[in-house]
Amino acid sequence: MELNLNLKFFFHRFCLILICLLVLIFQSDIPNLKALPMDNYQSEMVIEELRLKVPADAKAAWLNAEKEIWDPWLSSQDGFLGRQLFWDKEKEEALILVSWESKKLWKNIPMSEVNVVQEKFEDNVKTALNVIKNPFELIYEGELDKQG
What we know:
This protein has helices spanning 2-28, 30-34, 38-43, 59-75, 103-107, 111-129, and strands at residues 46-53, 80-88, 93-100, 137-145. It is an alpha+beta fold. It has two domains: 2-34; 43-145, Alpha-Beta Plaits, CATH 3.30.70.100. Strands 2-3-1-4 form a four-stranded antiparallel β-sheet. The longest helix has 27 residues, at 2-28. The radius of gyration is 28 Å and the shape is elongated.
C-alpha cells in the first residue's frame, strides 16, 4: 500500500514537472511566432543608410558628384524609390538615406556595378578637388526597416 502511494506521488510530480517544462518551452517560442518570415522581410521596403566623413571645404564637390554620378544611376535601378542627403556641420558628416521598394531588389544589384559607379564618383571628386585620394571616408553602412 505504501509503495502504491509513493508511486502515485512520484507520478504526480513527474506530470507536474513535464507540464511546467512544456509551458516554458512554448512560452519562449512566442516572439518567434510574431517575427516576419524571411520571404516577407525581403519584400518589405528598406532604407539604405550611409554615413561619410565630408569636410566643409569639400561639401560642394560631394554634392555635385552625388548629383552627377549617383542620381542618374540610382534612378535607373529597379526598386529605387528616392534618397535624401543630409550634412552635419559640426561633425562634418554626411548622412545618405536611400529608399528601396524591397531588400531583395536592392541586394540584386551586382556589387561589381556599384563599384564601377563608386569609382566614377571618386574620380569626379578627385578631379574637382585636385586631390589624389577620395576625401570621403565611409563611416557607417547599414539598413533601416520601415515600421508601422
